[in-house]
Structures are given as C-alpha cells and as structure tokens.
Amino acid sequence: MSRPETLGALRASGWRSVPVHEELRRNAIARIRAGEPLFPRVLGYENTVAPQLENALLAGHDIIFLGERGQAKTRIIRGLTALLDEWMPIVAGSEINDDPYHPVSRHARELVAEMGDDTPIAWVHRDDRFGEKLATPDTSIADLIGEVDPIKIAEGRYLSDELTLHYGLVPRTNRGIFAINELPDLAERIQVGLLNVLEERDVQIRGHKVRLPLDVVLVASANPEDYTNRGRIITPLKDRFGSQIRTHYPLDLDTEVAIVEQEAHLPAGGDIEVTVPSFMTEIVAAVSHAARASNQVSQRSGVSVRLSIANQEVMVANAVRRSLRAGSDRAVPRVTDLEALPAATAGKIEIETLEEGREGEILHKLVRSAVLRVFKERVPPHTHRLVVDAFDDETVVDTGEDVTDEAYVDLLRRMPALEEPVRALLADEEVTEAAGMVASAVELVLEGLHLSKRLNKDALGPRAQYRLR
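Above: the chain sequence. Below: its structure as tokens.
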C-alpha cells in the first residue's frame, strides 16, 4: 500500500494522529485481546512481570524497571517498539519527528505555513522511533536535551534564533520511546533536567524562549544496589515515573533451561554434529540456581542468566574440542566437559571469601551440587543400589576426555546394572542410541553415585577412576 507523500494526501487518507502512550495502549490491547504475549522471547515473566507491564501500558505510564543484571530489562525495553505502529508520518526534513498536523519545531511550522497541503511528508519506521542512552557520569544536558550549535552561529545566525539549536537525544526521539539504562549513574543535576520531560512534556534549551511540547514515552532501568552504591535516583524523578516494575531471575529450573536453549549460541560449521542431552543443560542451569542460593556468592550483584548461557556454550565447546581431538564427527557433552565451567563462571559472579585461592574450590562445589541435584531428580533411586552392587573389589571404571564413547557402550554391555538408569536418563531424548549419548548418561550415573557417597573417585590428571568404597 502506497503511503501519502503530502500533507493534503495524508488528510485525505483519514490518518489520525494519536499520542505515543495511546498508540502503545491501542496495540497492547489488540495483543492482549488476541491472547498473544507482548514479548514472546522473554521467558519466565508470564505471571509476574508481564501483568505489571500490561497494567503500565494500559495506564499510559512512563516505566522504570528495577532488577539485578541479566534479568532481560533491556530486552523488554527494546521490545516495546513492537507495540508501535509500523510506519509514522513526519514533516519531511524534521529533526524531531514533527507531527504533520501539529508541528512544534520552527522548521516544520514554517514549512507547513508556507506550503500548506503541499508540505512533503516522510515516513519513519517504528525501529527508528526508539532512542537509548547508557547513563554515565559524563552525560550532559546537551546530550539529552540539546545545545546551541556554534557552527550555526558562525554561519551568521543570532543566538536568539531557534534554528541555532542542536537537539539532543530526547527531542530527536519525539513521538517515540526513549530509554535510559542504569539511571542512577546519571548525575543528579542531569536528572533534574528530565523533570520537565516527564511531567510537563517539554524541554527548554540554554535560556532560549523555546518550548517544545514533546510526545515521548520515557523508560528507564536500574539495579537495586545503585540507589546507594554508585548513585541514586532523585526523589522528584522517581515520583514522575508512573510504574516501577521489579524484575527477577528464573524462579524454576525449567524456565532457566528454556532460556539457555533459546539464547545459547552453539558451535556450528565444519563436519561436527552437536547434540546436547537435556540433563546436561539442566546441570548448567542448576549451577546458576546453586550460585543464587549460596552464601559464598555475592547476591547484591546477582547471578545473571548470562552465566547459564556462557556455561552452556563453553561446555559444548569443550565437547567439540574433545571430539575433534578424537577424530569424531559427533560431539555430545558429558560430565567430563563440566571441568570447563569454572573458566566461564569466574568472571560472572563475585565470591565472598576472606581466604585467598578459595574461589576455584567454591566454583567446583557449585558444579558438584548441580550434578548431584540433577542426578537425584533424573535417576530412579532404586537403581542406585543395583549399580553399586555391580562393582566388586577389583572393578575400576575409567572416565575422562581421552576415553572414547565406544568404551562407555562396551561398559554398558559388561555392566547390565547401568542399563536402567541410562535408559531413564535418555527416555526423553530425541537421540538415544548414539554412543555419545550413552557415554554422557553413564558418566552422570557414576558421578552422581560418587557425590552420593556410594562410589569412590580418584582423579588422575585428565582421567578419573570410580571404584567401590
């Protein structure tokens, strides 16, 4: 469908101008009525954050999201553009997206006055109606609101001329959504400059008698500790946000697993086929849950979902590396590959310990607790004794990076007691017969029995040996 190119054609088309809050409300209503999620790629908020956000949009509020790092605050904020109309008309050449029916900048007002219905119209896509600024201590009013342009002064214009102004990020997002990330990091004197934007919906620049009645939805994000550690949000500014929405980490393991499967970028290319058993992804997610419950991990800074994603990626990468060295064309992560997790975990959590060198021990403890949790949930308890009874004083089982998948298949033939727990672990997998899947399940059974204090384990370099206690 062709879009009108002049003001007269726009009027004839029947297009109506509505405020951005009303536009968001209208499109949110359509999605809610159709039973569609507002943000389909944000998981785990269906019964907590989503209803609050729907209320804020229906109420036409400016919003501040409060939560620790890695809680999808920025993703939600950027996703708000999907609730805007796909295309919006502006006065052609306008720097601040002037409404053709109600222009506010001098350029647009003079153009409409001069050309009337022949005023040229440009169309802006909804993706271009979003502005974003990471709050930093050096952010200035000029960045956000605007400043006198010295080049335009040098060209011969007077200081009192509105055309000498260079608009900041907020005016340039007029008739759109403007987001400020990490709002408390913004200097308090700069926060004051946003008061008029939020309440009176206008900006004033350098003492000019210019009033720009902006139509903008302001959205911000902040971490809870930022109120006291790095800065604070001034009370009048907090008061002007209509809704404050508290985000959170995934409340259950299944949600974390779903997020990891959605977000993790697994190695691709070459001739390596990667298959990740669901129980190994559960272990990765359980590491993050264990960290969030640990008193040895700082909970003030949080344990981001990015930890689970990074751990999944490094676990798979280790499995691919191991398969390449073995000359295999299939990579299946197993317990052996969890040794790579501390390298990805160390930079994403803050350990609270007074003893030097204990960080590695704490990280390995988190991994072991995650393995034990998944083992107890996935392997039927009655099979534990059957496997232990299959060991005698001379039985030794080797595992490690250099142990081939076929060696585990051969072990399964020699030790039939392993069949039932392995079958239970692979019951929900799409691929069950592959040697790598069997190897992964066998390693989890053996490690789970060791962590349950049913088998002994001797670590010998890259290998480990399991034997009867």
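The chain has two domains: 7-246, 253-468.
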